[in-house]
Inverse folding.
């Protein structure tokens, strides 16, 4: 009896110990940042020590929230284990930040406020500190509630709110660039819609060309190498345009040509390998899914690299700006990024992912809709292609909104296909009303095995028959029963509403918190 009580106590305290370990590790990271700043020599600036600690806190939260979009679908589809995904993402996030993060960063993210309106160095430091802390706090809240949000929008909201507060304190409102704010609002719609449409389009293509065929493996031998070649083109173009933009400036045409070269090579290399692999799998969706496992691992790594190269600025941009203002005594539109600042961002993102990322990875991977490897492949493709398309059209997009929108797009397409299939079954049942059940079941089995074109032909013949729907009647109760059998909600509506709500309030909430924090810091710092 005593042993049972001890086991219960052990289980009850296990979660608490795990939380304490995570919190303790995160605090050690922040303490390490403080110790480095104070021990590196030279004059110690309290403002820089505080900003560095907050920058580390922001990096932890970016890792906990934003990185889930890159690896969540691969984990949800079981192409990667959670541990494997965290390991790959941590390495490639850090590599992207350190190798391709750039030497210079814009001090005012997205030009959201005018630097000319903030000539006072102290006010600028207070503003950026408040913005960084507000963005980090909102990300922490969103992560705790299981909502993937845009870290870019979080820091933009923080800069906007603190900037407006600084303008009010100085007697004016002209500090904000409202055109940029309008573009950010537009991205709330553009990003998820584009991502959802592209992901749904790829899934429909895969269904039409592979899974709706009687011999799926034969269809896979023809289509999968083409899809992988397209993936190679998209990811190479995306990586050159976005992931390497700070160290290698290439136009879209040049990036597309480089991507085309990789696509051709991928087609040549993968065709015999896919053919050989298909012989080892069964003729089913599960067999086809296995052909997409390795591409998903590559996509998770490449998306993480590009994310580290791009979004590390969300953590270290304001910190680099404060460092520039402290070290050189001036407010600049561009600031150099010291190695230690970049390390804060890179290590913080990787550590935040390892400590607190699993919750959001599970939300993205399985908390919205069920994913398999084919669906996860479509989401990865949408993430790369949407950025490419949006960049060429000059549209503002968010990688978080693209990935989550792609997941919703895949889920809603599946719902539509299920409902449409249910209507087809209803037509067959109505036509065979009164027939022996074995005849009906045999026809349904034949219909199920038919490819897309043959299904359409079978339904057309039924509708042309003299004993079509007009001559047979199901009761209202029977019709409702049939519809309920095939009408399924494959997207969790609660997750949909929670995430949309979080997206809509990200900028205003982080802006409000930043304004409050600015006035608080200003009140403490003024004599």
């Amino acid at each position: 009896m005593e042993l049972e009580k001890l086991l219960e106590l052990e289980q009850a305290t296990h979660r608490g110990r795990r939380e304490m370990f995570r919190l303790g590790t995160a605090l050690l990271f922040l303490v390490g940042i403080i110790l480095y700043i104070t021990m590196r020599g030279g004059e110690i600036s309290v403002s820089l020590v505080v900003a560095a600690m907050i920058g580390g806190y922001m990096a932890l939260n970016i890792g906990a929230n934003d990185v889930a979009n890159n690896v969540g679908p691969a984990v949800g589809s079981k192409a990667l284990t959670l541990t494997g995904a965290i390991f790959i993402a941590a390495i490639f996030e850090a590599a992207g930040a350190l190798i391709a993060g750039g030497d210079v960063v814009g001090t005012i993210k997205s030009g959201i406020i005018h630097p000319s309106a903030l000539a006072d160095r102290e006010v600028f430091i207070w503003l950026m500190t408040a913005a960084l802390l507000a963005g980090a706090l909102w990300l922490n809240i969103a992560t705790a509630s299981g909502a993937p949000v845009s870290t870019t929008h979080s820091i933009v909201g923080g800069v906007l709110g603190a900037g407006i507060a600084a303008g009010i304190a100085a007697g004016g409102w002209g500090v904000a660039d409202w055109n940029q704010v309008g573009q950010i609002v537009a991205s709330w719609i553009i990003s998820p819609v584009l991502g959802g449409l592209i992901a749904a389009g790829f899934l429909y293509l895969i269904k039409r060309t592979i899974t709706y065929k009687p011999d799926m493996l034969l269809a896979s031998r023809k289509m999968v190498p083409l899809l992988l070649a397209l993936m190679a083109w998209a990811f190479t173009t995306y990586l050159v345009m976005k992931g390497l933009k700070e160290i290698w400036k290439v136009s879209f045409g040049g990036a597309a040509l480089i991507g085309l070269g990789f696509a051709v090579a991928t087609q040549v290399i993968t065709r015999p390998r896919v053919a050989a692999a298909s012989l080892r799998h069964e003729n089913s969706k599960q067999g086809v899914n296995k052909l997409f496992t390795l591409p998903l691992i590559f996509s998770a790594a490449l998306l993480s690299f590009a994310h580290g190269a791009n979004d590390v600025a969300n953590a270290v941009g304001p910190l680099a700006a404060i460092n520039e203002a402290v070290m050189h005594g001036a407010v600049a539109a561009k600031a150099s990024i010291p190695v230690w600042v970049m390390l804060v961002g890179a290590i913080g993102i990787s550590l935040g992912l390892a400590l607190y990322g699993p919750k959001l990875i599970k939300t993205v991977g399985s908390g919205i809709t069920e994913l398999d490897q084919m669906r996860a492949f479509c989401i990865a493709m949408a993430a790369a292609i949407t950025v490419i398309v949006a960049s060429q059209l000059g549209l503002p997009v968010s990688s978080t909104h693209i990935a989550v929108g792609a997941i919703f797009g895949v889920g809603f397409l599946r719902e539509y296909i299920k409902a449409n299939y249910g209507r087809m079954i209803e037509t067959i049942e109505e036509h065979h009303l009164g027939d022996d059940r074995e005849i009906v079941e045999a026809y349904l089995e034949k219909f199920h095995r038919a490819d897309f074109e043959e299904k359409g032909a079978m339904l057309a013949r039924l509708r042309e028959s003299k004993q079509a729907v007009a001559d047979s009647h199901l009761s209202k109760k029977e019709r409702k029963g049939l519809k309920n059998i095939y009408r399924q909600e494959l997207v969790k509506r609660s997750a949909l509403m929670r995430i949309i709500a979080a997206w809509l309030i990200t900028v205003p909430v982080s802006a409000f918190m930043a304004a409050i924090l600015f006035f608080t810091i200003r009140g403490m710092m003024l004599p």
In short: The chain has one domain: 21-415+491-525. Residues 241 and 251 are 7 Å apart (CA to CA). The chain is about 80% helix and 0% strand. The longest helix spans residues 2-39.
